[in-house]
Amino acid sequence: MQSNGLYIRVIDERLFKTTKEVTALTRDIDYIVDKFSDDIYRAALAVTGSVHEAEDIVSEVIIKYFTRQGELFFNDDEHLKAWLLRTAINLSKDLLRSAGRRLRAENEVSARSDFSSPDMQIDVQNAINRLDKKYRIVLYLFYYQGCKTDEIADILGTSKGTVTSRLKRAREKLKLSLSDYEKEMSV
Predict the structure, then answer these.
(1) What is the pLDDT of residues 4-23, one digit of tens each?
(2) Residue limits of the RNA polymerase sigma factor 70 region 4 type domain (predicted)?
(3) For the chain, what percent of residues have pLDDT higher than 90?
(4) In angstroms, how far is CA 107 from the centroid of its own chain?
């Protein structure tokens, strides 16, 4: 993801007294975009199921971070990352609830997958996209982000048991969905 479009919306040079402040903010934007934008994007994609909406969410999260930067304090990058992911998930859920949301095709697929066949990648992504968002979110955080169940519970504001249960159900649903695919392929 590139940060060029964000500079226009976030930086208004009239707000800054020195070039050093503008340079520092530009450096901060580059750092956040380079380090976290892919994670934010994948979290938003897991919830919305739409590439275009996920891209919009990335911009909104980064803008929200920089407009509230003075109010926020993070102990480390992991704390910052948790806030960014939580914000992405909340904004994605808000988008799904909004009355003006345009329907997107359910066939949008993620370019990232560990499966060798392009057809299999599409089928796996479609199976994931058909899951309820509560299952997509925990799958994304667990498998793509490498979060532990207690970290996921913190990010989602739920109990570790709920996260474990959702992971188990999501795996069962995917297994059932993909076993149907396997039967079709062997015929």
Answers:
(1) 444 444 445 445 556 666 56
(2) 123-174
(3) 16
(4) 18
Whether the full predicted model's pTM is greater than 0.85, yes or no, is no
The domains found in the chain, sorted by start residue, are 1-105 (1.10.1740), 114-187 (1.10.10.10)
Quick one: tokens of 108? 């949008």
| Cβ atoms of 139 and 145 closer than 8 Å | no
For 152-176, give the DSSP string: HHHHHTS-HHHHHHHHHHHHHHHHH
Please give the Cα distance from 34 to 170 (Å, whole number).
Answer: 31
Looking at residue 71, the DSSP 8-state letter turns out to be G
Length of the chain: 187
CA neighbor of 44 nearest in space, from 5, 75, 9, 89: 89
Q: Is residue 131 classed as helix, strand or coil in its secondary structure?
A: coil
